[in-house]
Design brief:
- By secondary structure, this protein is α/β, with parallel strands linked by helices.
- The protein folds into two domains: 6-128, Rossmann fold; 135-215, Arc Repressor Mutant, subunit A, CATH 1.10.10.10.
- It contains ten helices and five strands.
- It has a five-stranded parallel beta sheet with strand order 2-1-3-4-5, sandwiched between helices.
- Helix 4 (91-100) packs across helix 6 and helix 8 (171-178) packs across helix 9.
Length: 227
């Protein structure tokens, strides 16, 4: 017995893909597809009418663009979290989508289990962005705007660790880069999470990118920094 069904709207202009997605999703005991849309304008209307938990939105839609749909959903009072579906996407488009309100990006060629995991992740209030995608966004943000003039109470070392997390490094990689133990890295991350109000590494990476923290510290292998 499922406590609460995840209500989903599928927005894609290809009927065969919508039908396939519906069958795939409704094979899961905790998912139900409550509506479909074949263009951007209809996607916005379905969200307003049905207030689904998740909107699966194709990147290339007729009518309203995906950015217009994302902004309209962000302005609506409902609980809908948009998850962008695409065959391919450039880092700058990922940035624009996240800024417009997307809670995640999923490539259409991923395994079905990953799509299910992505839906459950964004439903739980987190973001779904693949590690390689998060890392690729750093350079995009560095070229888009100047560094922010705020550190959110982070020390120099913490800023460096934030940057390495945003570029996709593991705790082991970070420990090796700064000649620290993995336990020390975990301790730093616990403090960073508390200072920034994030719950996990993906949220930290997205926060760092959106607030331009990645431009505030350039990690080095040997330069000393305040621990």
């Amino acid at each position: 017995m499922v406590d609460k069904l995840v209500r989903i709207v599928i927005a894609d202009d290809h009927p065969i893909l919508r039908d396939g997605l519906r069958k795939l999703l409704e094979a899961e005991p905790d998912f139900i597809v409550v509506g479909e849309a074949c263009d951007g304008h209809e996607a916005v209307e379905r969200v307003k009418q049905l207030e689904p938990d998740v909107l699966l939105l194709d990147l290339l839609m007729p009518g309203a663009s995906y950015l217009e749909v994302l902004r309209a959903v962000a302005e609506s009072p409902g609980p809908t979290r948009p998850l962008l579906l695409t065959a391919s996407i450039e880092p700058d488009e990922i940035v624009k989508a996240l800024e417009a309100g997307a809670r995640g990006i999923v490539l259409k060629d991923v395994a079905s289990q990953l799509l299910m995991k992505a839906i459950r992740t964004v439903t739980a209030g987190e973001y779904w962005v693949a590690r390689e995608s998060v890392g690729s966004l750093v350079g995009t943000f560095r070229t888009r705007s100047a560094p922010a003039d705020r550190h959110f109470g982070l020390t120099r070392r913490e800023l460096e660790i934030v940057t390495t997390v945003a570029t996709g490094l593991t705790n082991k990689d970070i420990a090796r880069r700064f000649s620290l133990s993995e336990e020390t890295v975990k301790h730093h991350l616990t403090k960073i999470f508390a200072k920034l109000g994030v719950a996990n590494r993906v949220e930290l990476a997205l926060f760092a990118i959106s607030e331009q923290l990645v431009a505030l510290a350039a990690p080095t292998r040997s330069r000393p920094a305040k621990e």
